[in-house]
Design the sequence.
């Protein structure tokens, strides 16, 4: 006997299937990592220093925790092992960025590698950067230029030590501008150095977690800028103008230098010189070199300025490092890259600096597909926050983590090197790792050889600065005063002599 399917049968079957799907999805929701759900999430949104709030969240709910609200799932990771398991070993699923309305779309930063998804655009830019600065072998070819720029920096510190932070910023931005656009910064304040600083400050503000409701409600991008509450759109317009200058001004500089036949070697000039250059290729290299310029102008100088704070707060470490330099290098010259292998304490000091000061305290990814980890369900489209700052202060990994103690990386049983965490994980690991690692190391070594750094004394009172991070996505040590003096008349003469060398 043939069964007859009536509309009632079809409706019943469809209802059953829907109920089964809802039941299955509800069960998956129940398997989310521990944390908070619903309106309680609003009270977990940090108003500032998201890394501190995230550390407390992980301590309360575990190394992998979750907040869920209105269909959004925020996964907060607080251990190196889980971060490596997800971002390194499952990197295909954990290499995208969440949609960024305020920064990526309204302010125009979406083409920078920092905010781009892991796609062909991102991979092309990363490939170009890898060809120029993607290994110690490629960076070795740049040693002479880095040493020259560092010597310029020492002279600035000698002449005007009160502007230490500005000199640090100029030194590392000068290095990256030589590589990205073949641009040699001018003496004193340079407009491209200041432009990158302004743009990066705005970038940090616009990518702060929970700072703009437009990132949670994307339709807000369409409201008129004159409406009350639409101040974010007016800010975005200002930020977009600064970003446009940061991208276009150095790019047009390279094009004018190429036309005049005076362009210095750089990533930009190398690709723009190709005979088969198209508009699409030119646009791509313009943004790739902007990425190089933007990234190198901020995170490295954040670490480098924190170095001065570390030496002020830990004079024992500074004296131990100077003793090693005096013994190995002597006092008749400044240390160079050739001395690096012979300076284990300086290397340990630098490694501890990377652990102690974290310029990017958190990294944010977005999952492409549903995933499970240790029995927990991680839905597609989840925002995955990894608390790098917290990982590098994990007492299970580092003994007395709040102390600045280079000795933890010496001896037969050194503690875990912070490099993988502090430079990011997986396919989004900082493409400037080798350049930043080399540039900041040389700056630290030469400053220690040339200067004594100590607390500032005002009106007979010694001022002790605090280790205080300011910023959001990219952070810096809050400005502080210090005393920076040459170690001897001989080293002062040495700095002035060295700076006269040809490029």
Sequence:
């Amino acid at each position: 006997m043939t069964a007859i399917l009536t509309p009632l049968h079809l409706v019943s079957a469809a209802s059953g299937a829907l109920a089964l799907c809802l039941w299955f999805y509800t069960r998956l929701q129940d398997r989310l990592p521990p944390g908070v759900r619903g309106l309680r999430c609003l009270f977990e949104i940090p108003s500032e220093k998201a890394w501190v709030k995230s550390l407390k969240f992980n301590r309360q709910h575990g190394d992998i925790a979750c907040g869920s609200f209105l269909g959004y799932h925020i996964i907060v990771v607080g251990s190196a092992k889980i971060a490596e398991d997800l971002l390194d070993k499952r990197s295909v699923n954990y290499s995208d960025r969440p949609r960024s309305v305020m920064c990526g779309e309204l302010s125009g930063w979406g083409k920078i590698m920092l905010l781009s998804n892991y796609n062909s655009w991102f991979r092309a830019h990363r490939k170009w950067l890898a060809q120029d600065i993607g290994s110690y072998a490629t960076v070795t070819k740049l040693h002479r230029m880095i040493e020259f720029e560092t010597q310029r920096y020492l002279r600035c510190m000698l002449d005007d030590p009160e502007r230490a932070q500005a000199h640090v910023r100029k030194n590392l931005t000068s290095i990256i501008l030589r590589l990205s656009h073949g641009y040699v910064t001018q003496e004193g304040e340079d407009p491209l150095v200041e432009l990158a600083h302004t743009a990066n400050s705005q970038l940090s503000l616009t990518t702060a977690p929970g700072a703009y409701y437009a990132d949670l409600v994307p339709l807000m991008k369409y409201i008129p800028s004159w409406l009350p509450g639409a101040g974010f759109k007016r800010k975005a317009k200002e930020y977009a103008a600064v970003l446009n200058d940061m991208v276009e001004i150095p790019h047009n500089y390279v094009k004018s230098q190429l036309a005049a036949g005076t362009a210095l070697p750089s990533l930009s000039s190398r690709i723009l010189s190709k005979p088969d250059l198209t508009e699409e290729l030119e646009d791509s290299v313009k943004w790739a070199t902007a990425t190089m310029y933007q990234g190198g102008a901020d995170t490295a100088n954040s670490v480098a300025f924190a170095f001065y704070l570390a030496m002020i707060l830990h004079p024992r470490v500074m004296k131990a490092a100077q003793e090693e330099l005096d013994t190995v290098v002597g006092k008749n010259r400044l240390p160079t890259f050739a001395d690096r292998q012979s300076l284990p304490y300086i290397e340990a000091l630098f490694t501890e600096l990377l652990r102690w000061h974290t310029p990017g305290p958190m990294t944010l990814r977005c999952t492409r597909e549903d995933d499970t980890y240790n029995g927990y369900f991680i839905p597609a489209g989840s925002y995955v926050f990894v608390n790098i700052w917290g990982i590098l202060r994990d007492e299970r990994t580092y003994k007395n983590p709040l102390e600045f103690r280079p000795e933890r990386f010496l001896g037969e049983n050194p503690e875990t090197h912070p490099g993988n965490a502090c430079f990011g994980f997986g396919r989004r690991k900082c493409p400037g790792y080798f350049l930043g690692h080399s540039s900041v190391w040389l700056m630290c070594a030469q400053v220690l050889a040339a200067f004594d750094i100590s607390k500032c004394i005002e009106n007979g009172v010694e001022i002790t600065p605090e280790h205080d991070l300011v910023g959001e996505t990219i952070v810096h040590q809050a400005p502080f005063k210090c005393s920076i003096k040459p170690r001897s008349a001989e080293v002062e003469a040495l700095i002035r002599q060295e700076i006269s060398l040809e490029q």
